[in-house]
Amino acid sequence: MASDETSGKDLTAADSSSVEHVTAAVGTAVVARDAVANPGFPPHRPRITDLDPRAEKRAERTVYTLFYLSIVGSIFAIAAYIIFPIVPEDPGSVRLNNLFIGIGLALALLALGIGAVHWGKALMHDEEGVDERHPVRGSDETRARAVEIFQEANTESGIGRRAVIRNSLIGALVVFPLPAVVLFRGLAPMDQDPVALLKQTMWEKGTRLALDPSGAPIKASDVTLGSSFAVIPEGLMDLEHGRLEEKAKAVVILVRMKPEDLIETPERASWSYDGIVAYSKICTHVGCPVGLYEQQTHHLLCPCHQSQFNVADQAKVIFGPAKRALPQLPIAVDSEGYLIAQSDFLEPVGPSFWERQ
Amino acid sequence: MSTTTDMKPAESKKSGGFTGAAANYIDERTSISTAVKELGRKIFPDHWSFLLGEVALYSFVIILLSGSFLTFFFQASMAEVHYEGSYVPLKGVEMSVAMASSLDISFDVRGGLLMRQVHHWAALLFVASIGLHMLRIYFTGAFRKPRELNWVIGFVLFILAMAEGFTGYSLPDDLLSGNGLRIIDGMVKGIPVVGTWISFLLFGGEFPGTDIVGRLYSLHILLLPAIIVALIALHLLFVVVHKHTQYPGAGRTDTNVVGYPVLPVYAAKAGGFFFIVFGVVMLMASFFTINPIWNYGPYDPSPVSAGTQPDWYIGFADGALRLIPPGLEWVGLGGTWSFNILIPLVGLGMFIGVVLLYPFLEAWITGDKREHHILDRPRNAPTRTAIGAAGVTFYAGLWAAASSDIIATHFSVTMEGVIHTLQAVVILGPFIAYFITKRVCLALQKKDREIVLHGYESGRIVRLPGGEYIEVHQPVDEYERWKLVSYTNYKPLELTPNAQGKVSPVQRVRAGLSRWFFEDRIAPVGTKELEESHGDHH
């Protein structure tokens, strides 16, 4: 390997047009005839540690001091592990444990690293070396031999000649991964249809509206004017399986405002109760929970991508990337005064999907 | 680093001794002397910007070390348990085993929180340093022949690093990571025809299901790291094959490489730098909290905390989702078309596609088939630099949009105003950045010319006999001058008819692009001009 160290001066300048590179096309590059010549390496400038023995001694001291300091850091980290244990139920002890083990390790690592770099920069031989570059492409002989090898392999195997063998091999290689594709169908349950699942939620006629997360049913009379809270179907918390899946579709935001503030279409006039309206809490953009309700303007804001919905006006989109209004859950009151659903949502909730309509 | 053998080479050579015997033992079984002979004195050029790739490599090593520690404690299960660990506020709360084991790592394993934070900080640094490394490669033209394929490998590594980040971020199954998955689910469902089924298969049924953490875990700790390790090996192998690029400087050419040998200087500096990077990550992990999942609580589809942010490298995608104008969703042709999701997806896909293909595009435009090992100073490739600045502006606009709510609350401006401003930044900003950058590059090139021809300002003011004041200019020495005059200049492609006397449309496109790239150009100073300017240093 050419690692011929040159002191710099003996390198002939301007060999950018040397033999190896002259064959390649220059494209639209301008090859100037009167280009300034490469002056060769500048004279080497010694460091202070090369000239002053005291500076050299000092650098040496710095390096080994740093390495010793690193040892101190490592030992400190081990000691900190023992001295600062984690005391159950005391978050402060976690902080101290984290801090002191970390400081010890950081000291160990930084001192080691800085010491090594300083050694390299201040004390090690600092004359630059020069390697020659060779074109990345193989030499003509190498390339000729490579072609020859392929030709020999072709002749000896007959892969070019025996077309039927070759083609059937390619066919077999193409087909053999296909079973793996089929196997991935098992990633989701075989007996479920995602479209059907997305189009229904836990709500049905008569399901009581319950507080999230306690699951306590809500009386219409307990909903104060101007309030808003998250609501789940009663019984959701008692589900054995699929609680989060059901909740991810069924969660609703309940808002009470003055009945005269509500803008309602005739067909939806019966979906609210005395100024109480219920809308899906799942954003119609990409499905974040639409959490932030502004009482004065009746606007709902999605904290993820800032879609805004006007709860007073059928939760229509007034700003942001979402297109569709939040689906409304038709509600009523049962004989005991509890809020109930009149039915499931009349359209799929959450983000759009291909088969939605 | 074996300090003992480094410090006493003479002694071990003389006696042979244990070192000699050990070296002989190994060499007779591995032929390692060949590797030492080939690589031991290999030259690496020095520059601070070459450290960016090293930071990426070292943070990956730190991630592997800290991540291995975490796997011994983390349990990738979404089975529900009641938390019974040390963190009092969450005691008795129902959560997944994944979340509970993440809390145990943080609160019940000594040094566990430290390792979690080292892992997360190093991951953030990993993606950041890859990004900066790519910018360095781009702006210095290091992607030119013969390194185009290594650019592609590095690009794939960047994508994989983000994938690793996202899969890892999702594992603790806390409120924030669950919301991140919710957004992914919503985006996947927006893909026409197949989206619903992809989501269904990905989550093993309905969102969120009980499978996703386990699946992401095997991607995160097995498949993705294996690919990354393989590609890093290939990436570095190519660095060895190509030998490192170098900045222009006196004595440096396209046929040599000037710098320090691997043994000992480069080994000491690069090895030491690994520990410095590790040390800095350790300091961050000791002093700064990252991803405090105990504040967020377990995933629940209902609550969400305002002002939450994804990890920084996901920001540009999240920002794109925020900036899309309203109302872009229609029903037709048999399904629902969610352009409010498709445009960000396809737009970002095209953006990174351009990043991937840029080296090939530029190579086609210039038609330059030579190997380039001397880096460009960014000013000497004004159009490329300007395109880069435009890309950075586009990315930065999207990235800032991921914090639109934070910007609005911190600066007391309206959310709508922030969104509309950033929409303008993303659309118009790249053009403005392009024109400003290009003009700045050309102006800097002119300045370089002036320095070469008329010298630099010495700061010495002289009054002439006539009363005129002038500043004396000093000529630059030949070594400094070389840096200013040694760059490749390209001219626009001239259209020439082929044998049939026709100009193909492809050539027309190439000529058009070539004109765009090289119409405005400043030629390097030649010897003739230099001669003529002599005595002009007044």
Automatic annotation (TrEMBL), chain A:
Its membrane topology: Multi-pass membrane protein
A GO molecular-function descriptor: 2 iron, 2 sulfur cluster binding
Subcellular location: Cell membrane
Residue stretches spanning the membrane: 63-87, 99-119, 169-188
Chief place where the protein resides: membrane
Region spans: Disordered: 1-20
Keyword field contains Acyltransferase: no
GO cellular component labels: plasma membrane
UniProt KW keywords: 2Fe-2S, Cell membrane, Disulfide bond, Electron transport, Iron, Iron-sulfur, Membrane, Metal-binding, Oxidoreductase, Respiratory chain, Transmembrane, Transmembrane helix, Transport
Chain ranges of the Rieske domain: 249-340
Required co-factors: [2Fe-2S] cluster
InterPro entries: QcrA_N (IPR045603), Rieske_2Fe-2S (IPR017941), Rieske_2Fe-2S_sf (IPR036922), Rieske_Fe-S_prot (IPR014349), Rieske_Fe-S_prot_C (IPR005805)
Stated family: Belongs to the Rieske iron-sulfur protein family.
Function (record text): Iron-sulfur subunit of the cytochrome bc1 complex, an essential component of the respiratory electron transport chain required for ATP synthesis. The bc1 complex catalyzes the oxidation of menaquinol and the reduction of cytochrome c in the respiratory chain. The bc1 complex operates through a Q-cycle mechanism that couples electron transfer to generation of the proton gradient that drives ATP synthesis.
The protein's name in its UniProt record: Cytochrome bc1 complex Rieske iron-sulfur subunit
Automatic annotation (TrEMBL), chain B:
SUPFAM superfamilies with a match to the protein in the record: Transmembrane di-heme cytochromes (SSF81342)
Chief site of localization: membrane
Transmembrane segments: 55-74, 120-139, 151-171, 217-241, 273-294, 341-365, 386-411, 417-437
Keyword Iron belongs to the record: yes
GO-annotated cellular components: plasma membrane
Biological processes annotated in GO: respiratory electron transport chain
GO function term, MF aspect, one: metal ion binding
Cofactors required: heme
Membrane topology type: Multi-pass membrane protein
EC nos: 7.1.1.8
Superkingdom, natural source: Bacteria
Compartment(s) where it occurs, according to its Swiss-Prot or TrEMBL record: Cell membrane
PROSITE patterns the record matches: CYTB_NTER
Protein name per Swiss-Prot or TrEMBL: Cytochrome bc1 complex cytochrome b subunit
PANTHER family reported in the protein's UniProt record: CYTOCHROME B
Keyword entries, A-Z: Cell membrane, Electron transport, Heme, Iron, Membrane, Metal-binding, Respiratory chain, Translocase, Transmembrane, Transmembrane helix, Transport
Enzyme class: translocase
Magnesium is among the record's keywords: no
Reactions that this protein is recorded to catalyse: a quinol + 2 Fe(III)-[cytochrome c](out) = a quinone + 2 Fe(II)-[cytochrome c](out) + 2 H(+)(out)
